Amino acid sequence: MTGEITMTRTHQARRKVLVAGAMTVGAALTSAGFGLLAPLRAQGLAPTRTMRGGDNNYRPGAPIVNRIGNGGFWLTGTVRRAGDGAPLPRIRIQVWAHTTEGHERDPHSHGATLTDANGVFRMEMPQIVPAFGQAHGHLAYDAQYDDNGFATVFLRPLMRSARDTSLSADFILQQA
């Protein structure tokens, strides 16, 4: 019986050493290792490219507004920096679309908003309706109206359905 107790105690002591060692290595990998791996992943964060047709009916310098028209539809997204993926606050994003209240070429169908501290923007506008057979929105980050040094990007995301009441589009900006 004494041999069984000694082996059990020895086995338990080894297990404690192995578990403690694994926890130490795991903690090191989680803190230091993650810090080393995160920049490697972030370096692969490619910038958003301008989409074909994204600048159609663009109106330079659309005013910053709380919403466009009577609202009811939400256009949202985030703006982050290429490379490290950091959120970009106070970035001016312009939106416009063909809606129930006007065409995308109409001045009252355009407006701009600023991102919050987390790089998030939201613009309420009238329901987007199909133009040229597709329900879509237009968004722009125009470097001409910002002094952060990023390259201009125009987006034209399509909605899955004309019945959708929201559309989301994200920007990853790179230095010009």
Question: Which value, in Å, is the CA radius of gyration?
Answer: 26 Å
The count of β-strands is 8
Report strand %. 15-25%
Q: Helix-strand pattern, N to C?
A: HEEEEEEEE
What is the first-to-last residue Cα distance?
77 Å
Structure characterization notes:
- With 176 residues, the protein is of the alpha/beta class.
- It is 24% helix and 23% strand.
- It contains 1 helix and 8 strands, in the order αββββββββ.
- Strands 1, 4, 7 and 8 form a 4-stranded mixed sheet that branches. Strands 3-2-5-6 form a 4-stranded antiparallel sheet, with no helix packed on it.
- The relative contact order is 0.20.
- Residues 17-42 have low confidence and may be disordered.
Question: Notable features of this structure?
Answer:
176 residues; 1 helix; 4-stranded antiparallel beta sheet; 4-stranded mixed beta sheet
Q: What's this, in brief?
A:
With 176 residues, the chain is of the alpha/beta class. 24% of the residues lie in helices and 23% in strands. The strands form two sheets. Strands 1, 4, 7 and 8 form a four-stranded mixed sheet that branches.
Furnish the topology, listing elements before pairings.
Layout: H1 2-43, E1 73-81, E2 92-97, E3 110-114, E4 120-125, E5 137-141, E6 153-155, E7 166-168, E8 171-173
Parallel strand pairs: 1-7, 1-8
Antiparallel strand pairs: 1-4, 2-3, 2-5, 5-6
